[in-house]
Specification:
Radius of gyration of chain A: 13 Å
Number of domains of chain A: 1
Number of helices of chain B: 18
CATH architecture of chain A: 3-Layer(aba) Sandwich
CATH superfamily of the largest domain in chain B: Histidine kinase-like ATPase, C-terminal domain
Largest interface: A-B, 30 and 31 residues
CATH class of chain A: Alpha Beta
Radius of gyration of chain B: 88 Å
Structural class of chain B: alpha+beta
Helix content of chain A: 25-40%
Distance between the termini of chain A: 9 Å
Number of strands of chain B: 16
Shape of chain A: globular
Helix content of chain B: 55-70%
Largest sheet of chain B: 5 strands, antiparallel
Shape of chain B: elongated
Distance between the termini of chain B: 162 Å
Strand content of chain A: 15-25%
Oligomer: heterodimer
Strand order of the largest sheet of chain A: 2-1-3-4-5
CATH class of the largest domain in chain B: Alpha Beta
Strand order of the largest sheet of chain B: 6-5-9-8-7
CATH architecture of the largest domain in chain B: 2-Layer Sandwich
């Protein structure tokens, strides 16, 4: 699959890119949701994996904007938030994966796509 | 001859006049030294052999006769007639002539005579006569005849006649001519003498006149000088007089000026007095009017006061009865009840009848009678007292009263007015409150820790994610039996190490925070440094929430007396709240502003955000414990702002929340810490 990874934390982003590539997918990365929007408008990505808390706009907002462009878009949310309760706007996402991400959990989610 | 004429008639008109005026009294003797003339005459006679004499015009002799013959001198002139004739003859012969000498025979003896006149300035003054010689003209007969005529001795006369020298007529005339020349010369000399004399006289006169004029002038000068001196003295005197008069006038003038001023002053005073009098009259009138009005008013007031008094007595009685506080008046000595109000009855559980006329001991009021003795001691010392007491109600239950007492004298008896409130219930509530606060503080700690933990969890989660994903990826790859690219592996390991480092750093800061929390030591703390320390923990989080942070920090160091960890908690709570408030809205320019300011004796901290306003009813309760607008999950337990308030109170500060046009501000005022070691 062709996957767009979005996270403002460069280390997280790079680690995730490495893992997703090891799992056999091709990756594009964006450390700014606005950059992610720009890339999504140019390339047809099969999947978007985004962090929730980011400057400029959070994961939910990004998901809403992507859905404006492509209502059928597949988006997975990564978050450290779930620990303390419900997550906002879950219906926007195919899946919500808690940080830190477990490689097998991620592989299962991607394999189901 | 010419010169003679000139001499005789001076051409000078002045001189001629002079001579006519001055030769009148000039005599021959005045003009010539007679001794010199005598010698000339004698010498002339001796040389010529003729007799000679100089006479006046009338013929009287001036000189002594020279060489006179015996006949003339001893005979003829000795006779009366002879002498007279001689004089006549001499006068005749001497007659003045300008053309030459007179030569003729003597009118007396008849001998030859000659004469020349001597004149001066045309005036004949003398005659020089010569003669007494004979020639053939004279005869003895004529002589004898004349002798008889003059009655002289004829014989002697004749003898003498013969002795008379004889000479020729020619010779005699020559001698006469010489005589004439000599006489003229004498006239010239005489004239010159007269002239000289005149000059001298004139000179003398002039000198005299000059002297007189001089004297006159000196006199005049003297006179004039004296006059001037006198005048000067007079003028000086007059001057002094004028000066004196002037001074007097000046003095008088000054006096007049002074009098004038005095008059003006007096005038003003009079005007002033007049004004004052008018004012006083007006004031007096006004006073009287006012007094009259006042008296009327006082009268009205008195009437009203009397009415009021009745009303006020009634009112006091009502107040006494209606007072919520229990009021009692008792005798100091034994606590005998004089008067009680309704509240007092309720508070003791006794009816009014059961109290009046009884003592406190009768109704067993005081739980500790020692307290009453202490009260009376205080009243005797201070007159008033206030403290809590324990009392026993009619039903034997014990209550706590907050009482105030005053010692007063009623009809000469020391009494006590007691006003008391039952505070038993209030004390119970207070005790409960204290317990609540203690519990709340514990919860605050937990909440604070929870807030912090939530932040920390997120901070840690990011590097943990990077770490775990990297490590997982590497393991997965190796599990697949694949080889790691060496460069890739190195990069992955670096990321793992870096992430672990980030976590370690967060943990360290957390440990520091906890350590500092344990210390409640107060010290001088710079709020700007507290903020820096807090932002080390939260800045990343603020940014990751798309919130910009603006700091407006005081130039003057905002130093407060406090505990830096507790102060950090204030910042953390405010910032976390602000982040949450801003998360709840969908807006682009989310902003938190931290401001510190030093004003007079205060340090002001303000943390604002441009999130949603806080409704007014919420602001009123925002610092209450357990009040929260947020869902009660682990992150928000509604204790944040109450924790802040308690911390602020610990630091002697004051907190307030306000809505403003851009959002919400929390403002905390701390007392400024002035200098090192000085506690606020």
């Amino acid at each position: 699959m062709n996957i767009l990874l979005v996270d403002d934390d460069i280390d997280c982003l790079e680690a995730l890119r490495r893992l997703v590539c090891m799992l056999g997918h091709s990756c594009a990365i964006a450390d700014d949701p606005r950059d992610a929007m720009a890339q999504y408008a140019q390339h047809a990505f099969d999947l978007v994996i985004t962090d929730f808390r980011m400057p400029a706009m959070d994961g939910s907002e990004l998901a809403r904007k992507i859905r404006v462009v492509n209502p059928e878009a597949k988006i997975i949310l990564l978050t450290g938030y779930a620990t303390f309760g419900e997550m906002p706007g879950e219906s926007l996402f195919l899946a919500v994966i808690e940080k830190p991400v477990d490689v097998h959990e991620l592989k299962d989610v991607l394999d189901k796509m | 001859m010419e010169s003679m004429k000139n001499n005789r008639l001076p051409e000078n008109e002045d001189l001629r006049r002079y001579f006519s005026e001055n030769t009148e009294n000039v005599k021959f003797e005045d003009l010539f030294n007679l001794k010199d003339i005598q010698r000339i005459q004698d010498d002339f006679s001796g040389a010529t052999g003729v007799a000679s004499i100089i006479t006046r015009v009338d013929g009287t002799p001036i000189t002594r006769p020279s060489n006179f013959c015996h006949l003339c001198i001893d005979i003829i002139r000795n006779t009366e007639r002879g002498y007279a004739n001689c004089c006549k003859s001499d006068a005749a012969i001497g007659a003045f002539r300008a053309d030459g000498p007179v030569v003729q025979t003597c009118l007396s003896g008849g001998l030859w005579d000659a004469g020349a006149g001597i004149a001066i300035g045309g005036r004949h003054i003398a005659n020089w006569l010569i003669g007494q010689v004979r020639d053939e003209t004279q005869t003895e007969a004529k002589m004898l005849e004349y002798a008889r005529e003059i009655r002289a001795d004829e014989q002697a006369f004749l003898t003498a006649f013969n002795q008379v020298p004889s000479m020729s007529r020619e010779k005699f005339e020559m001698i006469a001519k010489a005589l004439y020349t000599l006489a003229n010369q004498l006239s010239t000399i005489a004239f010159q003498n007269v002239q000289m004399h005149g000059f001298i006289a004139e000179r003398k006169m002039a000198e005299e006149a000059l002297r007189e004029a001089n004297e006159h002038l000196e006199l005049k000068v003297e006179e004039r000088t004296q006059e001037i001196v006198a005048l000067n003295e007079e003028l000086t005197a007059q001057n002094e007089e004028i000066t004196a008069v002037n001074e007097e006038l000046t003095a008088q003038n000054e006096e007049i000026t002074a009098m004038n001023e005095e008059l003006a002053t007096l005038n003003q005073s009079l005007e002033g007095i007049n004004d004052v009098l008018e004012t006083r009259v007006a004031e007096r009138t006004a006073d009287l009017t006012a007094t009259h009005e006042e008296l009327s008013a006082q009268f009205d007031e008195l009437v009203q006061a009397q009415k009021d008094l009745f009303a006020s007595e009634e009112m006091l009685s009502n107040v006494f009865q209606a007072s919520y506080d229990g009021i009692a008046v008792v005798r100091q000595e034994d606590g005998l009840f004089y008067s009680v109000n309704q509240s007092y009855c309720c508070m003791t559980g006794h009816e009014k009848d059961e109290l009046i006329g009884k003592t406190v001991e009768d109704i067993n009021l005081w739980v500790d009678p020692g307290q009453r003795r202490k009260l009376i001691g205080l009243l005797q010392e201070h007159g008033v007292a206030r403290f809590e007491i324990k009392i026993r109600r009619k039903d034997k239950t014990e209550r706590t009263w907050d009482g105030s007492w005053q010692r007063i004298e009623i009809n000469g008896v020391w009494s006590i007015v007691s006003i008391a409130t039952d505070i038993t219930d209030r004390k119970l509530i207070e005790a409960e409150n204290v317990a609540n606060i203690q519990r709340m503080n514990r919860l605050e700690r937990l909440s604070s820790l929870g807030t912090l933990a939530a932040g920390v969890a997120h901070e840690i989660n990011q590097p943990l994610q990077a770490l775990k994903v990297t490590a997982d990826g590497m393991c997965y790859w190796l599990e697949q039996g694949k080889c790691l690219d060496q460069e890739q592996a190195k990069s992955d390991c670096n990321r793992i190490s870096r992430s672990a480092e980030r976590i370690s750093s967060i943990v360290k800061r957390l440990r520091d925070f906890v350590n500092r929390s344990r210390s409640a030591d107060m010290e001088a703390v710079n709020l700007n440094e507290v903020e820096k320390s807090v932002l080390d923990l939260l800045e990343h989080r603020i940014k990751s929430h798309s919130i910009s942070l603006r700091e407006e920090l005081s130039q003057e160091q905002p130093i407060v007396w406090g505990n830096s960890t507790r102060l950090e908690e204030i910042y953390i709570n405010f910032l976390v709240n602000a982040i949450q408030a801003l998360d709840s809205v969908d807006q682009a320019d989310k902003e938190i502003v931290i401001t510190t300011d030093c004003k007079n004796d205060k340090v002001v901290l303000e943390i604002s955000n441009n999130g949603p306003f806080i409704p007014q009813e919420v602001i009123a309760k925002i610092f209450d414990p357990f009040f929260s607008t947020k869902s009660t999950n682990g992150e928000n337990m509604g204790l944040g702002l109450s924790i802040i308030q308690s911390i602020v109170s610990e630091h002697g500060g004051h907190i307030s929340a306000v809505n403003h046009d851009k959002g919400v501000s929390f403002r905390i005022e701390f007392p400024k810490h002035r200098s090192e070691g000085e506690k606020p």
